[in-house]
Design brief:
Length: about 425
Amino acid sequence: MPEKASLKKIAIIGGGPAALYLLKEFSAKDPRHYTIDIFEAGERLGCGMPYSKAGANPEHIANVSGNEIPELITPLTHWIEKLPASTLNQFGVKKNQFDEYEVVPRLLLGQYLENQFDQLLDIAAKKGIRINTHLSTQVIDIIDQPEINRVLVKMVDNEELEFDIVIICTGHSWPRKEEGKVKDYFDSPYPPQKLMHQCNHPVAIKGSSLTAIDAVVTLAIVHGRFERNHSMELTWIANENAPEFKMVMHSLQGLLPAIRIYLNDPQLKSEILLSEDDIFRHIMENDGFLSLDYLFEKNFKEPMKSRDPEYYQQVRNVSLEEFVKNIMQTRKQADAFQLFKTEYREANRSILLEKPVYWKELLAALNHLINYPAKHLSAEDMIRFQKLLMPLIAIIIAFVPQDSCEQLIALYDAGRLEIISV
């Protein structure tokens, strides 16, 4: 077949982090076989919603560190070293104290991702890869045309382009159902600028994980200020004209998420992950299904033998149901913020000593591993995974940054943050 006829036209819808890593994969392929068009609704590539002003203010901190970011062109630490002092000062980052385990403000991480996207585009151009970028371009429809094996991409100005393959990388999408119809009701805290007006009454927040924490931090900055006391503990002082302001989180079962710990193996590349061969050998021996109990045994319990022998002895004969029940009961019975303070101290020790809390690290690893073979679970195990294990994993892998923890504790101690179990 002539080369021209075999050339694939590829469209990537969205130009954030997902598109960034997809572009990295394409840049390693033969450039003669395809062209790429990238459609991005915003004005910047790489940062997406969470790492731009659409999803963050300067006070919002990322919950991933440099060593948790899969390899790009330049490591985050090297990129930070080359930044001017004015940029570092703007975000409160100290170059001489920064290492790969540090987290940074989300807007700064967005600048890094944008830089990496630009570098990848340069690399692609030098390799002869044909890439067209469409910034400030809203895609409103994707129309499949199976009769001609093409896909039509339609933009807001009614322009239409035809492609062989369309890959959707639109990332975070926040619906607006009641916002604008009901006064002082917001379907999401994004962009955070919309919350930046002061009130003098309690504010209800639906949820208690990372999105809710974004709303809490934004509102706290508007209604007061954070300061260190003589013991260097963070405190929050309310504005004089907001004496009645407080925030009430409405949380499923009254739970707060877990706190960021030291992660020894954040990209999960070590021996703790089962190989593809291991997984399919087990499937062949298990009537064509992957057993959730097998994953729990091989990717959680067995690695615990060497990593934390004492904890292994506690769980070695415990079923998945018993394990989840024990942890969730402990969390539900404890006062949410007292447990939060205890875990904050534990997490600080973990980072200071550079020693993971192994059961949390391995639970995160189990969550990562299951993305690939989940389709091989039986219907019963899929239900167990979704209803039993996922609620626990969702709490553990939220990994609230230390700075955000300090802020929540300061607000709680000031009597301006409560949590209600729903």
